[in-house]
Amino acid sequence: MKEWHKTEVAKVLLSYEQRLALRNTMLTVLGAWIAYFVIINTFVRSLNKIVIPVLDMPLGFWLAVQGTATVFGVALYALSKRVDGSLDSSARRGARAAP
């Protein structure tokens, strides 16, 4: 039982390099999202002078609310694809190493 547990855990766990790459990717995505939020909120008053014709809504308000949510959703999608790719490559590496 103990031997099975070790081999199964070894197949599932990511290597140190993969964990480091995922952490760096996650921090980059978080930094980009925060930077977008700070930049938009810095210029929101000047952007509010522009009105989106179809929505009849100030551009600064729309970018602050919808843009931040959209950027966050895209960032989560990109991060999940990166994690999924790392897990797939880890599983393939583990399958090749198995007897």
General description of the model:
This protein is mostly helical. The protein is built from 4 helices and 2 strands; from the N terminus they run αααββα. The longest helix has 39 residues, at 59-97.
Task: Give a short summary of the structure.
The chain is mainly alpha-helical. It is built from four helices and two strands; from the N terminus they run αααββα.
Secondary structural class: mainly alpha
Oligomeric description of these chains: single chain
Strand content: under 5%
- Per the principal axes of the C-alpha atoms, what is the gross shape? elongated
Radius of gyration: 21 Å
The string of secondary-structure elements, in order, is HHHEEH
Uncertain segments of ≥5 residues (pLDDT<50)? none
Separation, N- and C-terminal Cα atoms: 18 Å
Measured as a percent range, the helix fraction is: over 70%
Tags for this model:
two-stranded antiparallel ribbon, 99 residues, 4 helices, single chain, 2 strands, mainly alpha
Give a topology summary:
Elements: H1 2-12, H2 16-42, H3 44-47, E1 51-52, E2 57-58, H4 59-97
Antiparallel strand pairs: 1-2
Helix pairs in contact: 2-4
